[in-house]
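Q: How do we represent a protein-ligand complex in a form that can be generated token by token?
A: Start from the inputs.
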Amino acid sequence: MASDSQDIHLSIGGMRCAGCVDAVETALRNVPGVTEAVVNFADHSARVKGQFNTEVLLGSLADAGYESALQAQVEDPESIEKEERLLYRRYLQKSALAGALGIPLMITEHLGWLPMLGTLQGTHFWTVISALTLVILYLSGRGYYLGAIQSLYQRQANMDTLIALGTGSAWIYSTIAIDYANLLPGHVQHAYFESSVVILAFINLGSALEINARGRTSAAIRALMGLQPRQAIVIRDGIERTIPIAEVGLDDIIRVRPGEKIPVDGVVVEGTSTVDESMLTGEPMPVVKSPGERVVSGTLNQQGALLFKATHIGQQTVLAQIIACVRNAQGTKPDIGRLVDRIAAIFVPVVVGIAMLTFMTWWLFGPEPSLGYAFVTAMTVLVIACPCALGLATPISIMVGVGKAAQQGILIRKGDALQTAGLLTCMVVDKTGTLTEGRPSIVAVETAQGAAEDEVIRLAASLEAASEHPLAHAVVKLAAERNIRLAAASDFSARPGYGVMAAVEGQRIIIGNSAMMQSENVDMAIWAQRLADCASQARTPLLVARGGVMLGMLQAEDPIKQDSAAAIAALNAQGIRVIMLTGDHEATARAVAARVGISEFRAHVLPQDKAAVVAELQAQGEKVGMVGDGINDAPALAQANVGFAIGTGTDIAIESADIVIMSGSLTKLAESVRVSRLTLRNIEHNLVGASLYNIISIPVAAGLLYPFYGLLLNPMIAGAAMAMSSLTVVANANRLRWQ
Ligand code: ADP
Ligand code: MG
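Then emit the structure tokens for the protein with adenosine-5'-diphosphate bound:
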């Protein structure tokens, strides 16, 4: 049964190598209705979008040989951990088992303690070893053999194919050598049983260690999931009950005692307390919460008791959305990642081809015993050449990078943004609410001759009561403080970026900036000096006119955020050009810019023109980041290469942003750029390292150095090298966290 457009996450089991990524994506895309399928090899998951039947989807994966399950948005971190530990232990056991046979065999062989092939004693001994090896191959390597057969059915080849071919052929060759030793030339009368089991020991060990290391990389998600309390105290019909979080309903009244976590999102109805929101915003200062204020699931109530009404539960809470967001971002694949997946998909067949070529070359042209050499070199090529490291290189770094950002309250909503943020050359910053607190207050009132201060305030506030602008709130608040009664206003109209006007007591009142007054033909000649003085103190002049004549001026001051200057300095230090945009007066803009250390600004920018300014900069060849908080910033945020929304801003701004700074702190801008640059560099290191590994290891394994230096790789060393290569990539990505 097809349903509405879906967007789901799957956990995928049985994906052992980067070569599988393409196979899984193809299996998913072949399902009718799937429009997008992206596999994340780092955490073995996939994101699928479209209108499809989930049963069919899971069936298609099963046919391709992969187990899968739908992922819940908020999982239980403990059960994931348990599952991971189990898998880890199982790989370790398999490794130990293979090692228990392989290592003693290897040592005694080297010491020359073992009977020769071709002798009676030797035939008996090696027949027993052959049987033992077969048991170990079954116990420790079954998964790889099944996988190889499975992918053969799909006419594909993956890491399993390589391992199965390498270790399986070692066993077959050696077993044949026992019975037909006399048919083989003298030196080739050698068994490779220990190679096949030691290779399995290394590969299983590698998988175990990788699971261990990878587990820690999604620590960011797990930490977020761990924030969610399991229970809540609800008050229903006057009775307090402790219930599981899943049973909390909308509009339930919930009690939070001191020291407890907030279970779901809501609005405080009773009590006052401070709440530590640092886990979500990265902002260390606790926030005071009193009735009417929003509380968010997962944050920590401190010393007071609160009663609040649940407004968002389940998937709708901010916490659930952050988790979904981080997961999406971690799962997105930059272009380079897609290219690598495509390479990995053709890599394995190519390697099998190289192995065959190696075999033929040694057999035909190699020194005696040529068959023995041919066999060993081909096996070494098969074992060493897995492209696992290549496949892990990109997703593992992205995962760590996104997680690192999340832990600092930088929410990357679109994975590509992590890549683009590091390439920004220019940052456009909105003044109000971004550089400043966005909570202006009126600090001075000037009047025209004959006008009373309270009268100017009364008329202004009567108009502004109908406006949503932060400046309007400041005016209304001032009137309230002075106990001024407001008059009724009619014919109200607002002109965004200019001001408002309406009729009060039969007269037309205008309040706004100088451009507003000019367009309404209000004569301001004698106000020019006072206007300039006000603006040069970084204050915003609000001009008030009645019946076309200036009545007075209110001076609004919006405090500059404490860390704005430091944030700008950090961006400048990164070589990023910073430009401030504002609808405010030119002189006010200049004063604010000077205080925070910005040398470039544009004043009198109308809200609808902000996106055009961004586009103009892009046309100059800049990669533009835009920071804003308001509704009118949304188009500019969308236009920018990377849109940053300030977490304290409106939902619309956050919706159109690529990156959300959960705390209001602008210093996180430079930090985003820094994390992005580090991640990009990390991906580069990983890709270069992984490609070099394959470029060097395959020819060496094929024996290219033998004619010159007599150098041949031992197949067991190849197994160890293969395991090490993935581990190195994972370790390098983890290094990001401490940078
Ligand atoms: P910004 O977001 O940069 O503050 P706006 O476009 O919101 O810019 O506003 C630009 C200017 O227009 C303000 O600085 C103010 O002078 C004037 N203005 C806008 N709305 C109002 C209002 N409701 N009351 C008074 N002045 C206003
Ligand atoms: Mg604004």
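DSSP finds 26 helices and 26 strands in the chain. The first strand starts at residue 6 and ends at 13.
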